[in-house]
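Journal club side-thread
Mid-discussion, someone asked how the predicted structure for our own chain would compare to the paper's figures. Pasting it here so we can look after the session.
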Amino acid sequence: MSADRPPAESAGPADAESDADDVDRTPVEDADVCVVGAGPAGGLVADRLVAAGLEVVILEAGPRFDPGDRLARQERAIRPAYDRPAVWDGDPERDAHSASGDWFYPLNHTRVKGVGGSTLHWQGMVMRLHEDDFESRSARGVGTDWPIDYEDLRPYYAEAERELGVAGADDNPFAPPRQNPHPMPAFPPSYSDGLFAEACEELEIAMHSVPNARNSESYDGRSACVGYGTCQPVCPSGAKYDATVHVERAEGRGATVIDRAPVQRLEHGPDAIEAAVYATPDDQEHRQEADAFVIACGGVETPRLLLLSDSSHYPDGLANSSGLVGQFFMDHLFAGMGGTLEEPTRQNHVGFLTSECHQFYDDADAEVGPFKLEFFNYAGPSPVETALTGDDWGDDLLDRLRGEYGTHVGLGALVEQLPREDSYVALDPDRTDDRGNPVPDVHWTVGDRALRTIERANEVQERILEELGAEITWRAGPDDTGPAYHHMGTTRMGSDQEESVVGPGLRTHDLENCWIASSSVFPTAGAMNPTLTIAALALKAADHVLDAL
């Protein structure tokens, strides 16, 4: 092994006791705002507020990760001895959860607790929701309408693209209108995109570029993508955006970041939060007081924290006079298909997607939902994966690698799940985490409309692969679909206090000093990767906090 490439074990978690001696985790006096969560929403909110002159403290349940360990974590990701949570130091006790629904939900498969959150290992696709996504009930006859529309979020989308650094092009005829170009040019189509393009042209299916929060050129002090092709689970070069960008920028402007400080509960009166009570590695509890609180813990931990913070004022959970905290949990469903060609396809060389198709997205109605097609650049095993999963050596291994690698193609699709009353996040009455708190129970249910949409996506995928002349070897359809790990909907936004948890300004209806910046506020899911919308809503929430203070 090269001397400048550390072994996977060197990326192990820091010792809790020695770490506790080295870091000051005491509360910040006279804080204006306490942000709970150091992912993209929390980082953006904190950066904007501290830039406006406010005293901001961020509480993060997980650790800081040393960027120097990224190569070691990349190595860990490909070793069969490690599972996905181990790449970013998942803790089975700290991250314990239940899944009581008809559909099993593997919560820890892709979430990261730590400074940067799940953007540490996301794929980096950042699309705007379509206009009809904000008006699902009116335009499609199902779901519910958002209390804001696309035009309300349009300037925040543009700002979010600048903040994250998005490489994209104005070549998507089905995308919602925009005023300004993307900050960076789009990545060029991959070699396999060119193969798909010939088949799609025959079928009159439009292909276009994918907006990526991955640098196509140097941007914001970060290098251009160098083509590792491992955006998930590790970007070794730092070219892909992650939330440490804004957390560290906020910290440089004077914000305080307290890591490994899981918030246990929010102390409050009838109208306002008074303090966030958090634990530290030395088993101490502290109270962080502030004038305002922004909850940015994601679609599962946000409702969990509110439910853990019940009181005589809110016996069913904080900010839960509507009874909807935790309700209407949504995720995107995956539809996919792939196979092999009798020619090289050059997979696993660049980021996950450089081309997609929104052509069928706005055909959605009450029977079939919106979906987008994805043309994979990572179909089939990589040579490393193939080598590590076999027991052959030398010439035999080389022959197998040559025979199994390089001829695969694959298509994916994201499919909308509607909000349902029987899909929710609750507290498990029988199981607790390492601090003795009830763990989240994800009760996930998928409706017939989503399954029909998967069937429709599979039909289009099959047509493309047959036109391409591929031998179809796998299919992810209605009977074996899974989640995209986009947690949405559990503290929904709305104008009616009885039908929602937060208002159009992202402040909770029940509490005058509590805002939620998260995909948990999505009333419906659409079928676009949610992070750009999360970022836009976080910037919107920060503006409302500033107005209030």
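Post-session note: The first helix runs from residue 16 to 22.
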